[in-house]
Amino acid sequence: MLEADCAQVLPRLPDAAFELIYIDPPFNTGATRRHRRLEVTRDAAGERVGFGGHRYRSTAVGEMDYADRFDDYVGFLAPKLERARELLAPEGTLYVHLDYREAHYVKVALDAIFGRDCFLNEIIWAYDYGGKPTRRWPAKHDTILVYVRDRERHLFDADAVEREPYMAPGLVGPQKAARGKRPTDTWWHTIVATAGHERTGYPTQKPEGVLRRIVAASSRPGGWCLDFFAGSGTLGAVCAQLGRHYVLIDSNPQAIAVIRKRLGS
């Protein structure tokens, strides 16, 4: 892993070296993203009352933040996406994880960089958490754009992907229902649970279940994967579980500290 601006590191990486590149760049929400980590312990003098009337004390154990604001978001991303294409192996695939506000602009840029024939999928990751406005439909999804280096040669192993339950198992029969179905391009998957074992405290951490589908489908055991907006290091954690090599890059020292702790390196 490298603590550095990816714009300086990407030119130094070898061309055509990666079967999979996944990036989760800043979403350009216009806000400063902050996450405060709390440790809750039982304390008779604590400020919070919980189950059974017991009192608890909350202690701040860390805070992370970064500015999520760009005047020209596509201009910020495009040179990195151009280099990502060069870094992909002939059978390689790029996954770009985006906010709904920017996905359509970035897709136009990716069409120009890769060619429209190399657009493979628009994956919708749907979840349900946080506030729900009452004057519009609540925005509860991210977009993951998928492009390949070569439409005729790209790697995609559908059988390696974990199956999921049928929404109407009674319509397919017991044998199919027991086996489950391959995921489509719409993924219903929860966020990282506040008290879950995956939780690192990083503000934009993505769940391992989402990355596991990507790594399993678009890379092989022993292959190389790259994330140059590594954040909490979820790609690296999944690659380690599935027997892939990985390169993680992030310019935020807080992210590197989280990754080192998470991956034990």
Q: Could you give the distance between the termini? A: 9 Å
Tell me the helix content.
25-40%
Main pleated-sheet profile = 8 strands, mixed
Which stretches are low in confidence, meaning pLDDT under 50 for 5 or more residues running? Answer: none
Question: Which features does this protein show?
Answer:
single chain, 265 residues, alpha/beta, 8-stranded mixed sheet, 3-stranded antiparallel sheet, 7 helices, 11 strands
Description:
This protein is of the alpha/beta class. It has helices spanning 6-9, 73-87, 103-114, 174-179, 208-218, 234-242, 253-263, and strands at residues 2-3, 18-23, 31-42, 48-49, 55-68, 88-98, 119-126, 141-148, 186-188, 224-227, 245-250. It has an eight-stranded mixed sheet. Strands 3-5-4 form a three-stranded antiparallel sheet, with no helix packed on it. Strand 4 (48-49) and strand 5 (55-68) form a beta hairpin.
